[in-house]
Every structure is written in structure tokens, then in C-alpha cells.
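Explain this protein:
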Amino acid sequence: MDSKKLAQLCREFADNRKGEDIVVLDVRKLSSVTDYFVIASGSSEPHLRAIVNEITDELRDQHEVRARVVDGTMEGAWVVLDFFDVFVHVMRADA
């Protein structure tokens, strides 16, 4: 799957769980590390968990895509999913 399609799917799955302020940033000309950042906010720890689980579960079940690394915690208010060409940042709005 190409990185643009993956970023769009991550955005769609975050929106499925009512992610807030969802943005997809094309950073191909700015970064040699990744192609896209997907940034979404949630209002609480359960909301963050729902967004992260929706993205990871749907990508795994529908497309057999898994994050290489998941970093951060719901309690810490910020989780990063590393899909190599796409980084997904899910955080509480106050973070």
C-alpha cells in the first residue's frame, strides 16, 4: 500500500472514533524519515484508546498492516504509531 493511501486510511479510522482536529501533513519534501504525519486529538484516556485501537485493529484486519513501533501511553496523553512511511500522533488536546 502506498503511503498516501495509508495516511488517508489512518485519518478515516481516527474519524470513525470521533477523533478531533485530524490533520494529514505531507512531509515528503521536509523529512527523510517519513512521508506523512497524521495528527488527531482526543478528549480523554478512553477516547485516545478508542482512536488508537480503531486505527491499529482496522489496518491489521482489513489490510494486514501493523505498526512497527507504538510509543507513548494513554496516561501520558500522547501515542505515536510508526507505520514507517506514516507516523500517527494521537494526543489529548491539552498535550
The CA atoms of residues 17 and 47 lie 8 Å apart. The longest strand covers residues 20-26. The first helix runs from residue 3 to 16. The chain has a mean pLDDT of 94.
